[in-house]
Amino acid sequence: MSTDPPLVIISGAGPTGLALAGELSGSGIRCHVVEKRRRPSPYSRAFGLMPRTMELLDMRDQMEPCLDAGLPCTRPPLGDLRGHLEYRRLDTPFPYILIIPQSRTEELLEKAALEEGAQIERGAEVTAVHQDRDAVRVEITGSDGTRRTRTADYLVGCDGVRSTVRQSVGIPFPGRDYHQSLMIVDAPLARPPDPEIYARITRRGMVAAYPFGDGTYRLIILDRQKMTVPVEQPLTLADASDSIRGILGIDLAPYDPLWLSRFRSSQRHATRYRRGRVLLAGDAAHTHIPSGGQGLQVGIQDAMNLGWKLAAELHGWAPDGLLDSYEQERLPIAAATLRKTDMNFRFEISDSPPARLARWLIMKGGRFGPLQTPVLKEFANFTLRYPPPRQDRHNSLVGTRVPDATLHGREGSGRRLFELFRQRRFVLLDQSPGGRAADLAADGWGERIHVTRSHAQGRVRLPEVLLARPDGYVAWAGDADDTGALRGALTRWCGDARPGAGAVRPRAGSTAR
Fold it and tell me: Which residue among 72, 258, 324, 392 has the highest number of C-beta atoms inside a 10 angstrom radius?
C-alpha cells in the first residue's frame, strides 16, 4: 500500500472543478486539476450567483471579491414593466442575485484554489482511466500529444457534458436534446434600457438585459419566430437586433459584440455519480436548460457536498457510507432540477392560449408580496432538504439549510455563525446554560468540530443544540439533555470518538467501497 499523501485528480477547471479543488486543498488533500483549455474562456454561459451559492462561498470566506466584481440585483423584473421579485424578503446576508460573468467567477474560484495549494495544469486532458480496489490510474495527454500516467486515490470528472471520465467508466447519460434555441449577446448598448436590469415578455417572445458593470450587457433573447433556426447557423448582430425590435418594439442598439451565440441545450442526467474510485460532478453528471440560472449553482453545490466527504474518507475518519451519501443526496436534487427546468422551458416557449393566460396571471399575482416568498425560496435554493438518517426522520430540521445568525457568548460577541464554517469542519452550537453538549463534542470529536458555546440571534430561532455539517446543512438538532441522541449523531456523521486526539492525519490508499 502506498505511503504517499492522498491525491485527488479533478478533470475540468470550470466552476465545479475549481470549487472542489478549493474544498479539497483547503482540507489538506493534494489536488491536481487537469484542464484541456490552455487559458480560461472569456465567454460566460452563466452570469449570476444565487443566494444559497453565495452563502456557501461566504462560509469559505470567498464572497468579498465576488461582491467587488458583481452587481447585486434585489428586484429582478417579472417581465411586464411593472412587477418585481423582492429578494429582500429572504432571511440571508445576500438577499439578491449577484450579476457576475461566469468567467469572473471562475477566475476567483481558481485564485482561491491556488491559494489553498491546488495544482492546476492547463493544456492537458484526461484521455483514459483504469482503476482497481486500491487506486485509479489516469492517463493525461498534453496539447503536444505527450502522454503520461498518474496514480491517484480518486478521480472526479468535472469535464462537462461530453465527459471523458464518465464515458471511460461506462456511466450512462440518458436524456434528450431540445430543438428550440435561444440567442445570447454580450455587447454594449447604444440605447440601454431603463431600468438597466430589464426583462420584457410579449406575444413574440422575451428579452432580458443584465449589466455586467463595465458597459457590457448580457442579452438573452427568446424569439418564438426563430427558435428552430439551426444552431450551426452563425448568429449575427443584425439578426439579434431584428429579434429585439420585433419582441420589444424598441431598439436597444447593441454594438461591438464580445460574444454572439445561438444556444441549444439538453436535459441529461448520469444514472449514478460514483463508480469505484471515480466520481462525477457538475455538467458531467447533469445538464439542463438554464431556466433560472441553476446550472452553475447546482455544480458549485455538488462540489461543496462532495468535498468534505471525500476529505473525510482520505483523512481516515469517515463513517461507513459517508462518501456514498454524495450520490444519494445530490442525484435526486439534480433530477428534480431537470424536471423543473424542463417544465419552465416548455412554459416559456409555448404560445398556446393557456400558456399566455398563465404568464399573465403569474405576472399579475407576482406583484403581491406574500405570494412571492415560496417562489423566492425556490429560486434561492433554500427549499433543498437532504434526506435525514432513519433515526432523525421525525426531526424537521435535519437536512435543511443552516441560516446565518449573530453569536453572543463567552467566546466574544458579534461573530457570525457562517464564519465558523471557514475551517471546513462541523460546527456545534450549544446555547444551553451548562454547555454539556459542547463538552461532549469537544472531548470526543474536537479535531473534526468547531464547538461554540454561544447564543445565536437571528430572524429564525435556532434550537438549543445544533450540529451542522461542513457544507452548512443541519446534521442534528435538539436539546442539550438528549446526550444519547447527540452522541449517536456525532458518531453517525463524524465517525468514532477519539478522546484527546490531536489533528487528523491523512491516510494513503483508502479502500473504495
Answer: 392
Question: 325-349 vs 353-365: helix axis angle to the nearest 10?
Answer: 110
Contact present, 270 and 171 (Cβ < 8 Å): yes
Separation of alpha carbons 294 and 258, rounded Å: 24
The candidate with the shortest Cα–Cα distance to 468, out of 490, 447, 485, is 490
| Nearest by Cα to 98 from 53, 147, 60 | 53
Rg of the chain's alpha carbons, rounded to an integer?
24
Which three cell numbers, joined as nine digits, stand for 163?
465527459
| Cβ atoms 268, 287 nearer than 8 A | yes
Buried (b) or exposed (e) across 461-499, using 16+ Cβ within 10 A?
ebbbbbbbbbbbbbbbbbebeeeebbbebbebbbbebbe
The whole-chain average pLDDT of the chain stands at 90
Instruction: Please provide residue 133's backbone torsions phi and psi, each rounded to the nearest 5 degrees.
Output: -65, -30
DSSP one-letter code for 235: P
Residue 359's pLDDT is 66
What φ, ψ does residue 62 adopt, rounded to 5°?
Answer: -115, 5
Query: In which residue are the cell numbers 434561492 written?
Result: 380
Q: What is the DSSP letter of 6?
A: P
Q: Strand 154-157 relative to strand 278-280: parallel, antiparallel, unpaired?
A: parallel
233: amino acid identity, one letter: Q
CA–CA dist 398, 395 (Å, integer): 6
What pLDDT score does 84 carry?
A: 87
- CB-CB contact of 26 with 116 (8 Å): yes
Q: How far is CA 148 from CA 72, 127, 129, 144, in A?
A: 45, 10, 12, 12
Tell me, what's the pLDDT at 3? 65
* 376-417 pLDDT per residue, tens: 998 899 999 999 999 898 999 999 999 999 999 876 678 999
pLDDT digit string (tens) for 475-511? 999 999 999 999 999 999 999 998 765 433 334 444 3
- The beta-strand segments (E) located in 124-194 are 124-131, 136-142, 147-152, 154-157, 175-177, 182-188
Split at pLDDT 50, 70, 90, the class of 176 is confident
Per-residue pLDDT tens over the stretch 60-91: 999 999 999 999 999 998 888 888 889 999 99
- pLDDT-derived band at 513 (thresholds 50, 70, 90) equals very low
| SS percent in the chain: helix, strand, coil, step 5 | 35, 25, 40
* Neighbouring residues of 380: CB distance < 8 A, sequence distance ≥ 6: 50, 51, 52, 87, 90, 92
Over pLDDT 70: what percentage of the chain?
Answer: 92
User: At 268, which helix (H) or strand (E)?
Assistant: strand 266-269
CA distances to 397, 463, 466 from 403, rounded to whole Å, are 11, 12, 11
Is the CB of residue 403 less than 8 Å from the CB of residue 459? yes
Question: DSSP string of 75-144?
Answer: S-B-SBSS-B--GGGSSSS--SEEE--HHHHHHHHHHHHHHHT-EEEESEEEEEEEE-SS-EEEEEEETT
